[in-house]
Amino acid sequence: MIRREIIAIAVFAFTYLLISGRRLKVLPLNRPAAALLGTVLMVAGGVMTPEQAYRAVDYDTLVLLLGMSLISAYLYLAGFFEWTADWVLKASRTPRRLLLYLILTSGTLSALLVNDTICFMLTPLVVTVVVRGRLPLLPFLLALAMSANLGSVATLVGNPQNMIIGHLSRMPFLHFSASLVLVAVAGLAIEYAVLGWGFRRELTRAVLEPVAEAPRQIDRRLLRLTIIVLLLVFAGFLAGLNLSWTALSGAVLIMVLARRDTHQVLKLVDWHLLLFFAGLFVVVAGLDDTGLPDQLYARLRGVFGVTAGAQAWNLAWLSVVGSNIFSNVPFVLVAGKWIHGFAQPELMWKVLALATTFAGNLTILGSVANIIVVESARGHIEVGFWDYARLGIPVTVLTTIAGMLILLLLP
Question: Can you give the pTM of this predicted structure?
Answer without folding.
Answer: 0.83
